[in-house]
Structures are given as C-alpha cells and as structure tokens.
Amino acid sequence: MAATDHVDFETFMNGVKRRNSGQTEFIQAVQEVAQDIFDFIEDKEEYHEAQILRRIAEPDRIVSFRVCWEDDNHCVRVQRGWRVQNSNAIGPYKGGLRFHPSVNESVLKFLAFEQTFKNSLTGLPMGGGKGGANFNPKGKSDSEVMRFCQSFMTELYRHIGPETDIPAGDIGVGGREIGYMFGQYKRITNRWEGVLTGKALEYGGSAMRPEATGYGAVYFLRNMLRHKDEDIEGRSAVISGSGNVATHAAEKIVQLGGKVLTLSDSDGFIYDPDGIDQDKIDWVKRLKNERRGRISEYCDEYSGAEYHGDGARPWSVEAELALPCATQNELHQEDAKALVKNGVVAVSEGANMPTTLEGVKVFHDARITYGPGKAANAGGVAVSGLEMSQNSERISWNHGRLADMLTELMEGIHEKCVQYGEAENGYVDYVRGANIAGFKKVADAMLAFGVM
Ligand code: NDP
After folding, report:
1. Is 337 tagged catalytic?
2. Is 390 in the pocket of ligand 1 (CB under 6 A)?
3. Contact residues for 305 (Cβ-Cβ < 8 A; gap 6+)
4. Same topology between domain 61-192 and domain 211-376
5. Ligand 1, atom 33: nearest CA belongs to which residue?
6. Tens digits of per-residue pLDDT, 328-361?
7. CB 194 within 8 A of CB 116
8. What residue's CA is closest to ligand 1, atom 46?
9. Which of 130, 259, 285, 288 is catalytic?
10. Would you tell me how many other CB atoms lie within 10 Å of the CB of residue 121?
11. pTM of the full predicted structure?
12. Which CATH class is domain 211-376?
C-alpha cells in the first residue's frame, strides 16, 4: 500500500466541514474525537496509510424514507425517517431510534458516530448505528403513536435484522413504541427474532435494560470517584431530564446514599431542597410513563419544591455531582463555569454529548472529574448486547446476574479509559481515554479488512 501524506488536524477538520456542510452536531462530534486520535496515531503509519479516521467519519450508509400516517382526525401526516449505519467493523450495527421534532440527519450522524466508539468500549461485538424520525410523540394518542410506529417499521424492516442492524430506544422511544414496532416487524416478516432491544420481559426483553443506562452512568461516576478514593455517599447531585435515563440515574444515586436536588424537561426544571427520594422518583416515573405529564406538576404534588420555567436548566443549583441526562448540547460554557464555581467535583453524562466542546474545556481546565457520555452511558447498549445474546440462545438471565454483569462492564469501560487517559500527574482525561480505547479496536478491525 502506498504511503499517504499525513494531513494535519486543521486540514482534516476543514474537509469534514466541507463535506458535511451545516451539520453542526456531526462536525462537533468528529472534532471531539479527532483531536485525541490525531495525537494517538501521530507515529502509527498504518492508520495513516489506510486513512482510517477519514473512513470512520463517513457513515457506511444512510437510509432516508417517507413515513405517512393518519391522525385521529383522519388527516394524512408525512414525516421523515432515517437509519444511519455508521460502522459494522466489529459487529452488526447497533444503536437507538429517536422520535423528536429536532431529529435531522446531522443529529443522527453524530449519534451513530458516537455509538461506534461507545459500542467498541463495551467490549461486546457491536457496530454503530442510529435512527429515528422527526415525529413528536408528545400530545399524540396511543392509536396515533401505534399507527406512526407501524408505518415507520413498514419501511425500516428492509434495512435491519438480528445479524445486520438491531435498533433500540432513545428519546421518545420507550417500551410502548418498541412494542408497536416489534409487533409490526413480526407481522411483516412472519419471524420472531431479536431485531430490536428494549423489549418488554413478556416478549424477549432483558431484565435490567430499562435501568441500565441511568444505573450505568452512576456506576461510572462511582468508579471515577473511587479512583480518587472518594465516594457518592453524602453528596448532592443535580440531574437534568426526567425520562428513562434521568429517573434511573436519580434512583441509583439515592440507593448509594446521595441526595438528588433537581430533575427537568424541555420546559424547565424542579429544585427540591429536601431531596428527591425513591417515592418521589416513582411518582415522576408514573407522571412521565403513564400520564405523560410535565415536570412542573411535581410542585403541585410536593410543596417544598420550586419550579423554574422558560426552558431553564438546573446547572445553577449548588451541588457536588452533576449528571446531564436529557439531550445534546444542554450544558454550555457558562453552565460549566457555574457548576465549577459552586464546587462540583464530578460530572457523569447519562445523555449523549450533553456538554458543548467549550463546556468540556472548562471542566478539564478546572481538573474536574468528567465522564463523557460515550463511556458513562454505555451501560444501556451493553445490556442491549446482553439482550441480543439471550434472544440468540433463547434464554433469559435473572436480574441479579444482569446487575452483576452491568457492574463489571462499567468497571471494564472505566479501566480502559484510565489506561489511555491517565496523565503523569494522575488526572484522568476520560474523553481522551474513551476516544482512543474505542477507536483502536474499530481501527484494527478495519485494517484487517483491507481497503473497503
Ligand atoms: P426520554 O425520552 O425517556 O427522556 C428524555 C428527557 O430529556 C425528557 O425529560 C425530555 O423532556 C428531555 N429533553 C429532550 N429533549 C430536550 C431538549 N431539547 N431540552 C431539554 N430537555 C429535553 O429519553 P432517554 O432518557 O432515553 O434519553 C435521554 C438521553 O440519554 C439522550 O441523550 C439519549 O440519547 C441518551 N441515552 C439513552 C439511552 C437509553 O437507554 N435510553 C442509552 C444511551 C444514551 P421532554 O419530555 O420535555 O421532551
């Protein structure tokens, strides 16, 4: 193979920007990974020759399709659906489906790119993908959601399969939506196979899957603190979001002796100085999953709490731990500065890329322990991988066994981050550690395949 001129980081990023014009989230995600990888591959000629970074930053394929459905007033509605298959170098494509009005190709490309490194970090054989639609389940009836999901799967089923691409849930896609989509896949193909994860226990789901992302983010936080001989017990935490990841992260913080002060949704956040205990978390879960209500209603139920509306985020509340668990770019430079000023000691991301590049720099400059989503929230996809194994073997493992496996998987991810991210002064750059460890496995597999 002929040697290729080494391009520098600026030239590489200029090319990414030119080829993905206007796709800000995707460019941000590539930049965050590439700055660490450039350093790592500096003296590794084989990666340059094979143009590995250039190839990883180009998805294997993107499928985009029309999704038509009829609302309860018999009006025809038209949405756009996508599946981004980023890389199947180390296993079949794997990553969630997101239903939210903000979904577009850039958001899904960033998520599929991140997923590739995250899945690699778990140590399980899973490639990276992501998909979804610009459909807003909020305010829709169950029948409308069912018709949308069925129509979405009527196209998606051609592109997925248990050995090809196995989607899961994400924002706006929970147990209800997975049920409707799995049912439609089964109806169209006449096959029962583990094509989706996040299924209910009655039809092939895995114990621990609903809890896995939130619990995993807290286990990762505990691993980071233990590495410095510290712990969660007795510490206060600010959490954003009030969905699957946020409520389970809150639950695990409480179980480990911490005090949760906030939860949020896209309208605002609640601050409960008495702490959001298990009963209150259960109430929020019912509010979100059964009544599909808003977090502001918390203050009608619990009079000691305050509500801050107009899309306010909780980062101004004083706490030692911060867990962004809502969405991308929800924690900006100013928010990071406020957290540091108020004495935060560690940040663990339940959401994907919730902190902007400028926010991450604030944490690193202040030597705050900071766990990026691709490592900290990998517990969700890891247990999805275990759901795939159980489906293939036609067995189900019990809760205790899966809880132990999740704990071990998060420890393994933490160790890999430390291996590649610990500096001589003892500070662990978890972003660098996660990027390099995640990249190396995928890149070495790509080298084995030759040029394709
Ligand atoms: P849910 O749909 O269950 O909850 C999402 C929460 O985030 C809701 O409270 C929602 O509020 C809030 N939110 C969504 N968009 C915004 C926004 N633009 N601004 C402020 N708040 C917003 O999703 P999940 O809990 O499953 O996912 C949360 C994050 O975790 C996402 O980044 C996802 O990619 C990531 N993740 C999820 C995994 C999983 O297993 N579910 C796995 C790994 C990562 P509202 O109701 O107002 O929309």
Report:
1. no
2. no
3. 270, 271, 272, 273, 274, 298, 299
4. yes
5. 351
6. 999 999 999 999 999 999 999 999 999 999 999 9
7. no
8. 265
9. 130
10. 26
11. 0.95
12. alpha beta
